[in-house]
Amino acid sequence: MSAAPPYPPVAELVPHDAPIILVDELLEWSPTQARVRARVRRGGPFVSEGRLPATILLEYMAQAIAVADGMAGHIDGRRDIGLLLGARELVLEVDAVEVGDELDLLVEQRFCDGRTASYACEARRGEQLLASATVNVMIAAPDQLTGVTGPRPK
């Protein structure tokens, strides 16, 4: 992956507002790969009794894809939005992660035809693999989506 940090803040790259932004920082980026950092925060959505169910790691991986695509859009002026269609081969190696855990999210685009894309994704805590999946997204311009309000952050 090419390194051109510092990258823009995540809030400028994803079409979400706080508190639903779960990822914290783009660490590495290329047109087909990205590495994103996230810390499981107390009081965050989906956290209960200091734990985050491992199933929610799918949303963390999807947001890492959004960050990667947002960075591409930042470079070339696109303002597309990716919508999670689903996941294949979702493998959860743990039941939950803990508040304070730092997650390393790796995404690699395997297919993109301009309307849909597929990514190989991993969520890790240090060297430990927590979850992996093939994540599929639909790509659309904001004006193609009904019910979506507000502009995508710049």
Structural topology:
Elements: E1 25-29, E2 33-39, E3 51-53, H1 57-76, E4 81-92, E5 96-98, E6 102-112, E7 116-125, E8 128-140
Antiparallel strand pairs: 1-2, 2-6, 3-5, 4-8, 6-7, 7-8
Descriptive account of the structure:
With 154 residues, this protein is mainly beta. It has one domain (10-144): Roll (Thiol Ester Dehydrase, Chain A), CATH 3.10.129. Helices cover 13% and strands 42% of the residues. It has one helix at 57-76; strands at 25-29, 33-39, 51-53, 81-92, 96-98, 102-112, 116-125, 128-140. The protein has a six-stranded antiparallel beta sheet, covered by helices on one side. The protein has a two-stranded antiparallel ribbon with strand order 3-5. A hairpin with a 2-residue loop joins strand 7 and strand 8 (128-140). The longest helix is centred in the middle third of the chain and has 20 residues, at 57-76. The radius of gyration is 15 Å and the shape is globular. The two termini are 23 Å apart.
State the low-pLDDT regions, or none. 150-154
Mean pLDDT: 89
- The percentage of residues in β strands lies in 35-45%
CATH class: Alpha Beta
Q: How many runs of DSSP E, i.e. beta strands?
A: 8
Main beta sheet strand tally, sense and closure = 6 strands, antiparallel
Number of domains: 1
Distance between the termini: 23 Å
Please list the strands of the largest sheet in the order they lie side by side.
Answer: 1-2-6-7-8-4
The 3D shape can be described as globular
CATH architecture: Roll
Percent range for helical residues?
10-25%
**The named CATH superfamily:** Hotdog Thioesterase
Order of helices and strands: EEEHEEEEE
How many H/I helical runs?
1
CATH fold description: Thiol Ester Dehydrase, Chain A
User: Helix/strand/pairing class, anyone?
Assistant: mainly beta
Radius of gyration: 15 Å
